[in-house]
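Quick start: read one record
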Amino acid sequence: MQIMKKKLLMVFAALLMTVSASAQFEEGKMYCGASLTGLNLSYNGADELNLGLQAKAGYFITDDIMLSAQLGYQTSSSDVIPNHYEVGAGARYYIEQNGIFLGAGAKYVHTGHYNDFMPGVEVGYAFFISKTVTIEPALYYDQSLKDHSQYSTIGLKVGIGIYL
């Protein structure tokens, strides 16, 4: 009987988390967040060390769909891909029942040696640590239109998001 009570309590707690999480993905809500990318957890043909920081702001145009803008800076130990700045826009679709999000977007990458346009996709999870704050791990893929074999990147990023 004790085991059954614990299981019911866990199911109830999970249900409460889902209800409070879905309330954050409503039309008119705003989002701001920051992500740490790279940490040697990304791969492309030219990088040895890849570390980056991204800032993102978004707005829910309808329930579960957010449009966003981002700014970023990447540093690398490779001479092929030097430090660069990026600016981009995208969209996310949130699956309310579990906090998983699917994202797509594009960014413009600028460095002294080259410019690139990179469309990308991501899949992540919005894990609520409070009513409005999340930890957001995500897998991403950025496709380089300049040189696929050298600059296209697959990786892991970990971010913190605030839903207002």
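The chain is about 15% helix and 55% strand.
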